[in-house]
Amino acid sequence: MTDVPAFDAELDACGLNCPLPLLKAKLELNRLASGAVLKVSATDAGSQRDFRAFANLAGHVLLREEVDAGIYRYWLRKA
Hints:
Elements: E1 9-13, H1 20-31, E2 37-42, H2 47-58, E3 61-68, E4 71-77
Parallel strand pairs: 1-2
Antiparallel strand pairs: 2-4, 3-4
């Protein structure tokens, strides 16, 4: 089993449709210090594409992503 990264803040965006999971994650990241890790849980399948592109464009690091029983989880390290 792969180690799950530790996180500094957690956001539950389950039940929200695109683009709300990403928008809420952006707001939460704004509150965090550089280098902090945000864990996001979402149920929107489109969030996979969104979080990958967002991390790439914004300079954040997508440390891990996983899917389990229809729940998508992301660990983002703030740039």
